[in-house]
Fold:
Amino acid sequence: MADKPKRKLRPAQTVRERVEASKEEKPVKKVRFKRLKKAFAWSFSPFKKLGKFLNKYKVFRIIGKVLKFIGRILWPEYLRSSWREIKLVTWPNWNESRRLTVAVLGFAVVFGALVASLDYGLSHLFRLIILGKK
Structure:
């Protein structure tokens, strides 16, 4: 009988390698709000569409480049990159928003009651100790 070739074992994956592999497998879900996009579309790229339209025709390419340049001056890189980041945010759906809002309000009520009761108790204690009144 011929000897079977030995299997080659892969080295064990490190935690970093597993995390990177899991990031590659799951694409980032982009959620876009149409109302938000329509509301701010005029302010972030006023000259971009006109520049693209004019860039199609050779005669207007220079005008298109000038308009793009003006758009870059009027809307600095900070605002453009901020808008790009907002588009990449995964926003919660309605049910998640409602559930998280109820959780925050409940925590605020419980914490407020705790602080109020502690305040009342300490003020009563200090009146007893310092003033000697009941």
